[in-house]
Amino acid sequence: MDKWDYIDNTQRRRKRVTVIWNLLTILMLLATVCVVAVFLSVFIDPHSALNLFPPPTLPPAIALPTLTPTPRQVLPPTWTPLPSITPTSLPTPTLAPTETPFPLFTPSATPEATVSSAGLPFDVNAGSPIAISSVAFHPEAGCNWMGVAGQVLNMSGAPVSTGVVIKLGGSLGGVSKEVTSLTGTARQYGDAGYEILLASKPIASLGTLWLQLLDQAGLPMSPKIHFDTFEACDKNLIFINFRQVR
């Protein structure tokens, strides 16, 4: 092989190598373009068939019910006395079952006069306390019952049927008593009537029990009204009415 043949063979080998590298370069460029195209397709549409790892399908959105606010019931004002067409006073029919009139009871004036009522809006009404038979209100109980009852009136004589607490305290027969009631809970005595059971039989006592009006915050609205009780069956219901004085 002469010199020129060697040079010619070398050039041909170089050309072949160059062609191979050019082909590889073209293939790499094509592969890069394909990869970029696939990447863009997957980026734009993750659920594409070209994506070998598609994201999981999200569950359908839950439609929550729309909250509809319910308006609160408007309660009547606590301290507004209910108007009455005809002011209710002591029920006169209660005298019918008794054989004797109200002046039957003999105790002297109750000790409530010693309690200061200055500045308080209510006080005991004139003619209270008074003892009568309970037959008109509890005919089934006979003599096996003793209690105190009445009602609360405003300055015009109308019943104060809401917002007033009646508290009983003291002792009866050596047993402490503390009971509360509300006006309007015993309407057999009037629209603002109340009633508190004292015992299952008549028991005598001298000023050891008392009643007092309170507001809903527990503040006094009247002085403590002390009263007597009796063993007689025809005096087993003590009537005590309160009236607004200022």
Features:
single chain, 246 residues, alpha+beta, Immunoglobulin-like, 6-stranded mixed sheet, 4-stranded antiparallel sheet, 1 helix, rod-shaped
Radius of gyration: 49 Å
CATH-assigned fold name of the largest domain: Immunoglobulin-like
Shape: rod-shaped
Helix content: 10-25%
CATH class of the largest domain: Mainly Beta
Using DSSP, what is the number of strands? 10
Description:
- The chain is of the alpha+beta class and 246 residues long.
- The chain has 2 domains: 1-52; 92-244, Immunoglobulin-like (Sandwich).
- It contains 1 helix and 10 strands; from the N terminus they run H-E-E-E-E-E-E-E-E-E-E.
- The protein starts with a helix and ends with a strand.
Précis, in short:
The protein contains one helix and ten strands, in the order αββββββββββ. It has one helix at about 5-45, and strands at about 120-125, 130, 145-155, 165-170, 175-180, 195-200, 205-215, 225-230, 235-240, 240-245.
Task: Note the topology.
Layout: H1 3-44, E1 122-124, E2 130-132, E3 146-153, E4 165-172, E5 175-182, E6 193-199, E7 205-214, E8 225-229, E9 237-239, E10 242-244
Parallel strand pairs: 3-9, 3-10
Antiparallel strand pairs: 1-10, 2-9, 3-6, 4-5, 4-7, 7-8
